[in-house]
Write a structure and sequence with these properties.
This protein is mostly helical and about 110 residues long. Helices cover about 60% and strands about 0% of the residues.
């Protein structure tokens, strides 16, 4: 599973859970968290198209979804960039983002 597919799944699951809760006026005391998880597991695939469209819109606007904490690859890329004689915060940020995901739009503003 690609990183993009993982992000789309998380977003689709969130959309599914929201729909379940709003349509059924979900009450944890009546149905329980296990029931909600089962319903989400069964239904999240129906929201993949919407989640993918939302992620595409984010990417088209120059935004990126990256881990809250840098991955080892991101740290390594940032550290390597810092060792360059002429670099900037944009360069380090761009290197770290490039290591986080293969999306080209994430590094458009990074210095070379």
């Amino acid at each position: 599973m690609t990183e993009r597919e993982k992000i789309v799944e998380v977003m689709a699951r969130g959309l599914c859970r929201l729909r379940i809760q709003s349509n059924l006026r979900y009450d944890t005391k009546v149905r329980g968290a296990a029931w909600l998880q089962q319903a989400e597991d069964a239904g999240w695939h129906a929201f993949v198209e919407e989640a993918s469209a939302a992620l595409t819109a984010l990417e088209a606007s120059g935004m990126a979804v990256v881990p809250r904490e840098p991955t080892p690859e991101m740290y390594r890329a940032g550290s390597e960039r810092l060792q360059m004689v002429l670099t900037s915060a944009d360069g380090v940020w761009g290197a770290m983002l490039s290591a986080a995901s293969p999306t080209p739009s994430m590094t458009e503003n990074a210095d070379e």
